[in-house]
Design a protein that fits this description.
The complex is a heterodimer of chains A (113) and B (114). Chain A is mostly beta strands. Chain A is built from no helices and twelve strands. In chain A, strands 2, 5, 6, 10, 11 and 12 form a six-stranded mixed β-sheet that branches. In chain A, strands 3-9-8-7 form a four-stranded antiparallel β-sheet, with no helix packed on it. Chain A has a two-stranded antiparallel sheet with strand order 1-4. Classes of the chains: A mainly beta (113), B mainly beta (114).
Chain lengths: 113, 114
């Protein structure tokens, strides 16, 4: 079984600051993938970043990085230099072999100028 | 050059009707999915097909029937619509059915039952 917990319903950050969105996970397999998706108010789901359970380096994609702490079962998303366009809902998800994505409840990020 | 496209974008209909949502992907992916996002924004898998074969079938009322005529298309037919079916339905695809494959989503179909 898999479970994703996102404990922050809402986060607020000023433009140009960094922000960390928390995600903890629970999986029954040793092999799994962790994903972050962004959902703006327009509704589409945008893939941001992926981390494999055996990857030793933290994943990075532009301003996004994933702080992967396997022993703590956490996969926090770090957004550097926030922009107004980063205001959206962010979902953490996990996937084991043979399953689809299991999502957390999401965190709403609001970026102000 | 939309990667995963769903039609219609909005669907407003009466209880008891039957409706279909179509999904097409031009990414050459082998695996396609249907997810439901409820009013609290919670996303849950409904079905998955790999090369036209059903591989994931979550606990979904049998009023929902997916059909994959080929690996680029996955449609969702819903019979006897109920108020609780109101939600956003997302189609997604991934290159393979493996844990490390990111899924690419369509823009969603917002279904409203009157």
């Amino acid at each position: 079984a898999q479970k994703i917990t996102q404990t922050q319903p809402g986060m607020f950050v000023q433009e140009k600051e960094a922000v960390t969105l928390d995600c903890t996970y629970d999986t029954s397999d040793q092999s799994y993938g962790l994903f972050w998706y962004k959902q703006p108010s327009s509704g589409e789901m945008i893939f941001l970043i992926y981390q494999g359970s055996y990857d030793e380096q933290n994943a990075t994609e532009g301003r996004y990085s994933l702080n992967f702490q396997k022993a703590r079962k956490s996969a926090n998303l770090v957004i550097s230099a926030s922009q107004l366009g980063d205001s959206a809902m962010y979902f953490c998800a996990s996937r084991q072999a043979g399953t689809a994505l299991i999502f957390g409840k999401g965190t709403t990020l609001s970026v102000s100028s | 050059d939309t990667a995963v496209s769903q039609t219609p974008k909005y669907l407003v209909t009466q209880m008891g009707n039957d409706k279909s949502i179509k999904c097409e992907q031009n990414l050459g992916h082998d695996t396609m999915y249907w997810y439901k996002q409820d009013s609290k924004k919670f996303l849950k898998i409904m079905f998955s097909y790999n090369n036209k074969e059903l591989i994931i079938n979550e606990t979904v009322p049998n009023r929902f029937s997916p059909k994959s005529p080929d690996k680029a298309h996955l449609n969702l037919h819903i019979n006897s619509l109920e108020l609780g079916d109101s939600a956003v339905y997302f189609c997604a695809s991934s290159q393979r059915h493996e844990r490390n494959q990111p899924q690419h989503f369509g823009d969603g179909t917002r279904l409203s039952i009157l």
